[in-house]
Input
Amino acid sequence: MDAVATPPLIDPFMRAITYLRVSVTDRCDFRCVYCMAEHMTFLPKRDLLTLEELDRLCSTFVRLGVRKLRITGGEPLVRKNIMWFFERMGRHLGQGLDELTLTTNGSQLARFAGQLRDCGVRRVNVSLDTLDEDRFKAITRWGRLADVLHGIDAAQAAGLAVKINTVALKGTNDTEAHRLVEWCGERGMDLTFIEVMPMGELDGEDRLDQFWSLGDVRRELETRWTLTDTDYRTGGPARYVRVAETGQRIGFITPLTHNFCESCNRVRLTCTGQLYMCLGQDDDADLRAVLRASEDDALLETAIREAITRKPRGHDFDYSRQKVEGQVARHMSVTGG
Ligand code: SAM
Output
């Protein structure tokens, strides 16, 4: 069937689904305190989709109208042979796919930046919550700041645009917001702040204690920087402002304080082939079973279309009554942040 004849994926709220986020592994070389417990039990290898299966699934989504593919995890760059998969996805660019990108902790970027660029990747999101070495260790438990900074250097040297993603954490990185804006400005990088979401149980961490609303972050930034609203969009949920003093943008992703579900265009595939129609709801569709039941992609297409008819209006995350509501049991590393 050619692309023109294939009806697009439209959910019950008339939102076109054009963005697929794919977690290629649940494993990570960091153990960020708000994301994972220190001792996680990871999935046995047989449960994971093979890279060939991921290729088949993602290619089907592209045929059904997905135009943006974000590879994530866990840490996507720790999956063995992952460059083979990037190469496979790269062949869809200009053939239905507009953008192939990834979200990474940056630890392996020094090794892979050039190859990513060769596969057609032009932008990467690097998650980085602090520029302070000790704090970095405290947040990531296992990470080394120097590795991430080398990774960012390598990505920029390879010609990749880097955007920094920072989870706003009260009592942890709230003293660094200005420094992060300044540093990103010096390096020509945009910066996005994210509100911490109630996903997965953590060892002794309290979401409400960690929560720093982005309204407060913005007010703090405005004490030093001139911020102007823009209508710039990258296909994701961030709302951007321009910083007059640096020329760079700052994005705000506010799942808690401003729900942006009405414009949601995305679904998420886990490394075991479960399709989550919403980050903050539990309903999923088992695409691995369909994939393994038949070599015929027609069944897969039907299963994907059926899943999209179940996409909910939005998530129910809520801290407003001084308790955590709408929590989902999965860690972010499962659904792919
Ligand atoms: N390992 C990659 C990385 O570090 O970017 C990709 C996966 S990670 C789960 C993706 C993003 O989710 C990171 O920016 C991380 O900070 C964010 N994240 C994880 N748990 C979160 C939570 N509970 N609330 C908000 N963001 C979270």
